[in-house]
Amino acid sequence: MSLFDKFHKLAEARSGLGQDGPAPIATPIERVDSATRGWIGGREVILAGTNNYLGLTFHPDVIAAGTRALTELGSGTTGSRMANGSYGAHQALEAELAAAFGWPSAIVFSTGYQANLGALSTLVGQGEYLLLDSDSHASIYDGARLSNAQTIRFRHNDPENLDRRLSRLGDDAGRALVVVEGLYSMLGDQPPLAEFVEVKNNHKAWLMVDEAHSFGVFGERGLGLAEQAGLLDQVDFIVGTFSKSLAGIGGFCVSPHTDLELLRLASRPYIFTASPSPTVIASTRKALELLVNGQELRLSLQRNINRLYEEVKAMGYELGSPDPGPVMAIILPDRATALAHWKGLLNAGIYANLMIPPATPAGLNLLRISLSAAHTDADIDQIVNALRKLRDGL
Ligand code: PMP
């Protein structure tokens, strides 16, 4: 009898992925030279498995802002926002996030994971309801666990199913928060947001959109799917992360409701953790400025997305989403084929992601490629050629 017995199944599944070459899960990246170049297994590779959608991690202005803050404000805040960790720059970033949306309030959290934990666990509690898309990210499920609300799942991307579940709540639906994501990170698919908005309005429920993967990517100003769909005025809360398009680490919740500010008084994941370092806040502020004014970056990203989707679709691969987006999931018939594809790409100098159960929905085995505005035409050619060779070998 050991406390560790319960992990044996996971360890077995992990070792089943083989020991030869770099590990396909938690792959060690030995060096990173730019937004799209790194070293794995002793060789240079194209990074096509990061969430660096705008390619801002090495932008000279972002690096300069972070470096300046490190020199001027030190390496860490050594405390939480509630105690000693609330600097002028944290407040400035919150004001800039709120201004980007034209809303009165934004709260910065130390990670995107904590943004969901901090917002969900506080917004809903005893006697209230959370309605979650069944494909929701772990941070949304964990936020639900930390809240005392009753959690109800609805079928992935299915507004009719949500409608039925809200109907059962009757007038209580006014105390229900519906959560969807702007872009689902495993299959790369998007929700039918207009239909979800209609359903939640009919029941007078509340709506949160997690734009972790869609912030910076969709919409004229890069604010995400709600902006692109013209539905910002129908949304109650947007959560997002600094760790993808904003090229840092941290998270946020922004809202048209001024009362969002009240969360600061009660949100444990906000109160009981250290605030982001001055370096991260400064680089994120610069990245946010570049993101909001980043129409050119979004055009480059879109061009890369369109090319890859066209080429890969023509090869006959089954894709996780009918909508082209920055995450392309190729559905492969089994784990061995998915692993062979991951290794094949790496041998061709391309790092992508192997995604397997239990991390994936519906037990799917996926090769996940994520694109960046910083990928060149030659990078896309290399990815396409490698996939074509692998497809020919199927
Ligand atoms: N929400 C979603 C939908 C995510 O995909 C992620 C991370 N992949 C997060 C929240 C958490 O963000 P972070 O990694 O920045 O903590």
Q: Strands, helices and their partners?
A:
Layout (H helix, E strand, L loop, with lengths): L7 H8 L15 E2 L4 E4 L2 E5 L12 H14 L14 H14 L3 E5 L2 H12 L5 E5 L4 H9 L3 E5 L4 H11 L6 E6 L11 H11 L2 E5 L14 H4 L8 E5 L9 E5 L7 H4 L1 H4 L6 H15 L2 H20 L3 E2 L7 E6 L2 H13 L2 E2 L1 E3 L9 E6 L6 H16 L2
Parallel strand pairs: 3-13, 5-6, 5-7, 7-8, 8-9
Antiparallel strand pairs: 1-2, 2-3, 4-10, 9-10, 11-12, 12-15, 14-15
The protein binds 4'-deoxy-4'-aminopyridoxal-5'-phosphate (PMP).
The site of 4'-deoxy-4'-aminopyridoxal-5'-phosphate has 14 residues, from helix 4.
What does this structure look like?
The chain has 394 residues and is an alpha/beta fold. It has 14 helices and 15 strands. The strands form three sheets. Strands 4-10-9-8-7-5-6 form a seven-stranded mixed sheet, sandwiched between helices. The protein has a four-stranded mixed sheet with strand order 1-2-3-13. A four-stranded antiparallel sheet has the order 11-12-15-14. Strand 5, helix 5 (138-146) and strand 6 form a beta-alpha-beta unit. Helix 3 packs parallel to helix 11 (278-292), helix 4 runs parallel beside helix 5 and helix 6 (159-169) runs parallel beside helix 7 (193-203). 4'-deoxy-4'-aminopyridoxal-5'-phosphate is lined by residues 111-113, 116, 137, 139, 181, 185, 210, 212-213, 241, 243, 251.
Short description:
With 394 residues, the chain is of the alpha/beta class. It has helices at residues 8-15, 60-73, 88-101, 112-123, 138-146, 159-169, 193-203, 225-228, 263-266, 268-271, 278-292, 295-314, 335-347, 377-392, and strands at residues 31-32, 37-40, 43-47, 105-109, 129-133, 150-154, 176-181, 206-210, 237-241, 251-255, 318-319, 327-332, 350-351, 353-355, 365-370.
